[in-house]
Design goal:
The complex is a heterodimer of chains A (139) and B (326). With 139 residues, chain A is mainly β. Chain A is 0% helix and 45% strand. Chain A has no helices and eleven strands. Chain A has a nine-stranded antiparallel β-sheet with strand order 10-9-5-6-8-3-2-1-11, with no helix packed on it. Chain A has a two-stranded antiparallel ribbon with strand order 4-7.
Chain lengths: 139, 326
């Protein structure tokens, strides 16, 4: 494996207890770590509610105390702005771009809020196994 | 020295005049008139003389154009009748043929060809439009298409992946199951059906050939991985036996019997919707229409679109699905 290339991991990890958020992929590059998500609205809200991302979100690995801060997002607004759904059957694909984590196998936590509620987008113990990573072909 | 843009446009008109088989040996006045007509500018004989001199120069300054004044016919000519400053000689018939082809391509180009190809068409158009007469362009051909939908922006990437046999990772969203999944697919074909585009390929998750609507494909990434090829026999079987895109039931080929009213029978007699279609006429004009195919949601939609004019006789489960969706 050429670690200089961007590495892609298929994750498909559903959040619990609310299962309407899923981490789909992680892409490890020299400049950022990208996490791809899928979200579908639920009937908890009449029109599906909304989503937003805290600008203070970060990644941490189980191998150091370092925090890898959120740099920018694609298709999800940073709080306090929010994306309002139009129906409770809406769905949305979005990506978060963090500072690059080291390209080695580890477990990562995604922290949106330090003391989260069930609706916050916190994830713990996401397995990053470089043995299962694919190298991305750049154009 | 770079060629001045205005001068280049004049060269194109002179080139067009010298290649016009309907009006050979244009003289200076005719060249001046053609330039005025095509470019809507007045120019002088001196300028055109200079243009001809430049065109006769060797590249890169000129085109090495074999232009000669013919004293017998008192006009200019290319001594090589196949010469063109474009490198490819196009006579007026060729230009008409290109215009016809461009009409067809432009009419389907909106949704069915990639942006890159559209750009190439525009380049051809820009040259041909100056060559063709300036009468107002009237649309003669129209095909049924809608403008590009969601996912169409991935057309080029997926096309290249099919061509170069490159596996793709993408995020798929299933409308029916309301489910996201990151998948790796080894794409072999792009298919259009009813103005929707689909990518067909071997899905590692499903361990079989699958069809994915481009509108449900998110963020495709080509990856370095050994390509899991699918033989053309398997692809042909997969494509030819199904009407539409998404097979129903267990995806097996079945005998299907429909009963169609006299009016609807006309449509089926006029055009087969599947190669296995057979129409058995009855004395009152109605018909028993049989197929041997893999039924799909698109097949159900087609039946439903005819309302009460058509009825599924067999198989029973298909009749039930149609009835349930009425």
């Amino acid at each position: 494996m050429n670690k200089k290339r961007d590495l892609l991991l298929q994750l498909n990890v559903v959040r619990k207890p609310n299962t309407n958020l899923i981490i789909l992929r992680a892409i490890l590059s020299e400049t950022h770590t990208r996490i791809d998500f899928g979200y579908f609205a639920t009937d908890e809200y009449y029109r599906g509610g909304w989503i937003k991302m805290s600008p203070d979100s970060y990644l941490r690995t189980n191998s150091s105390e370092a925090k890898y801060k959120l740099k920018y997002t694609d298709d999800i607004p940073l709080a306090p702005a929010r994306l309002n759904f139009k129906s409770n059957k809406d769905w949305h694909y979005f990506s978060l771009f963090f500072e690059p984590i080291p390209k080695r196998s580890c477990k990562i936590d995604l922290i949106e809020v330090e003391n989260p509620q069930d609706t916050d987008f916190n994830y713990y113990g996401i397995q990053i196994d470089l043995n299962n990573a694919e190298e991305i072909i750049k154009p | 020295m770079p060629i001045n843009k205005n001068a280049y446009r004049r060269y194109k008109v002179i080139d067009l005049c010298l290649r016009n088989k309907m009006r050979t040996y244009p003289n200076m006045n005719e060249l001046l008139a053609a330039i005025e007509e095509k470019l809507d500018v007045n120019t002088t004989a001196e300028t055109v003389q200079k243009d001809i001199a430049v065109m006769k120069k060797m590249p890169p300054d000129g085109f090495d154009a074999p232009i000669k004044f013919n004293r017998t016919h008192l006009g200019y000519e290319y001594t090589n009748p196949d010469f063109s400053i474009y490198g490819v000689s196009l006579n007026s018939n060729d230009v008409n043929s290109i215009n016809e082809a461009i009409d067809v391509i432009s009419s389907i180009g909106g949704s069915r060809v990639s942006e890159k190809f559209t750009h190439a068409i525009e380049k051809v158009l820009s040259n041909v439009q100056e060559m063709s007469n300036s009468e107002e362009k009237r649309r003669i051909i129209q095909t049924d298409h809608i403008s590009e939908g969601r996912g169409f922006e991935h057309f080029d990437l997926l096309y290249n992946a099919c061509r170069d046999r490159v596996p793709i990772s993408f995020v798929h969203y299933s409308y029916s199951r309301r489910e996201f999944k990151a998948l790796i697919v080894h794409p072999v074909l792009l298919k259009e059906f009813n103005n929707h585009w689909y990518v067909i390929g071997f899905s590692e998750e499903h361990r079989e050939l699958r069809t994915f609507g481009l509108d449900r494909v998110n963020a495709p990434e080509p990856i370095y991985k050994v390509f899991q090829d699918t033989s053309s026999d398997v692809i042909d079987e997969y494509l030819n036996d199904v009407y539409g895109v998404y097979p129903l039931h267990d995806g097996k080929k079945e005998n299907i019997i429909l009963h169609a009213s006299p009016m609807i029978t006309n449509y089926f007699r006029a055009q087969k919707i599947h190669k296995s279609q057979n129409v058995e006429m009855r004395s009152r004009g109605d018909a028993i229409i049989t197929f041997e195919l893999i039924p799909s949601m698109e097949f159900v939609s087609l039946i439903l679109s005819y309302g009460r004019q058509i009825r599924v006789v067999e198989p029973a489960y298909l009749a039930e699905i149609v009835e349930k969706n009425k």
